Amino acid sequence: MIASWMLYTLLVSLAAALAVAALEAAGRALRLPTRHVWAGGMAACAVLAAAGVWRTAAAGLVFPAPPMTALPAGAGAAAAPDPSLAAALLAAAREGLIRAAASVGALGTGAGFWVLTGAWAALTTALLAVGLATLRRFRRGRRGWPVLAVAGVPVRVAPAAGPAVVGLLHPEIVVPAWLLDEPAEHQRMVVLHEREHIRGRDPLLAGLGFALAALMPWNPVMWWLLRGMRWAAEVDCDSRVLRHDVPARAYGSLLIDLAGRTPRYSLGVSLLSESSAALKRRLHAMTARIPSWARTRAAALGALSALALVGACEAKMPTSAEIAALDAAQAEAHARDLRLLAGNEAVVYTVDGRVVTAAEAHAVAAGSIVGITVTKGEGAVSRVAITTGVAMTPRGANAGAERAMVMARAASASQGTPIVVIDGVRSTAAALRALNPDEITNVEVIKGAAAQQLFNEPQASQGVIRVTTRAGARR
């Protein structure tokens, strides 16, 4: 359960991170502040993760199927070699992703659920405790630091800490004692930098960002976004400092002089001293000119960002309720989404093995359908095969009762999680989403008694989605 939800969260977080990177690049091209873009990305990941608890329950991710006790013959065999090396590598990578997603889904059930939940809770508690302890240590320490006027601004003077802003709701500027021996212009620029952090409410933003990342410590995307937000806050602050008639050359020289001279604190806002790579990026951001095509680039990146966000928000698959109500027309619609049907090819319809017209196939009631198979044609002809409860019902005195039971079971599936099988291997919706639609050759949707005959377990009543890929068909 929890492992598949984590996998889903990572996937949508990556899409959100792509959107953030595109928006950040667009904002930088136009010299706009971007720290709130990164903060918004972190908030979006948190919202998508929370929404995923409900959405993945409907999409088949939160309650993944446990591994099968026995696999069909040849299910674990490697795919047949492809004449194209690139295609073979892609097929191998896709096969590995399917197996990994299936394994991840199994981790979140039974004892694995409690192990993952316990480890998550312990790590989050530890991170939040460290953060609170660090804030408390600075709060106690600054009480003993004298308040002096530096560049006309009251600041705390510490023996070695700073320059930094300490505190979230009531931040104060802390400077090291050695700054008092620096030239007045250097003092002015350092204090101005810290004041701009306070004016921009960067301390509170950094604290909230750390808290969000600590709530999902297993999500590397959140930590990457937090790092990007911290860097963007510095770049935005540099931009505001330069608007106060501060020469860019002198300010850049100050940053270089301070590099490696002041300690860095993980929860401090100001990073006047940081890695050489980050410092080079800040210096470049201060001196780079806006290119003539900046607006065009920003528009293109904005469009990319919108597409990434749509991808993060629209990851879903048919639910068990939709499967129960599935008829030929809806099956064709889902098949077009998977590019099994293009809309211009000929389609051959069969009902219980008998060739029928499209109108006859569409007229079959959803309640009497126990399975629909859509097969992509090798040429210009595809097939939609419908199996009804009538074909599965034994003939005899009890035929009417058996048929009614089959139809009732098919129509009564509640909102839940269908079983996903890919190339004969029990899998998850995450693995299904990872497939290239062009590689899917066959999708079979089975419901009701027919599904329970394949899997003798309660979850089978929610339906079975069985997918065959080109690699699986060659086995």
Could you describe the 3D structure shown?
The protein is of the alpha+beta class and 475 residues long. It is built from 18 helices and twelve strands. It has an eight-stranded mixed sheet. Strands 1-2-4-3 form a four-stranded mixed sheet, sandwiched between helices. Strand 5 and strand 6 form a beta hairpin. Helix 1 crosses helix 3 and helix 4 runs antiparallel to helix 6. The longest helix is centred in the N-terminal third of the chain and has 33 residues. About 14% of the residues have low confidence.
Give the averaged pLDDT, no decimals.
74
The number of helices is 18
The fraction of residues in strands falls at 5-15%
What is the H-and-E element order?
HHHHEEEEHHHHHHHHEEHEEHHEEHEHEH
- Number of structural units classed as domains: 2
Structural class: alpha+beta
- State the shape: elongated
Give the uncertain stretches in residue-range form.
56-86, 103-108, 265-271, 391-414
Query: Could you tell me the number of beta strands?
Result: 12
Kindly report the spatial arrangement of strands forming the biggest sheet.
6-5-8-7-11-12-9-10
CA gyration radius, whole angstroms = 30 Å
Task: Sketch the major β-sheet.
Answer: 8 strands, mixed
Rounded to the nearest angstrom, the distance between the terminal CA atoms is 31 Å
| Helix percentage range | 40-55%
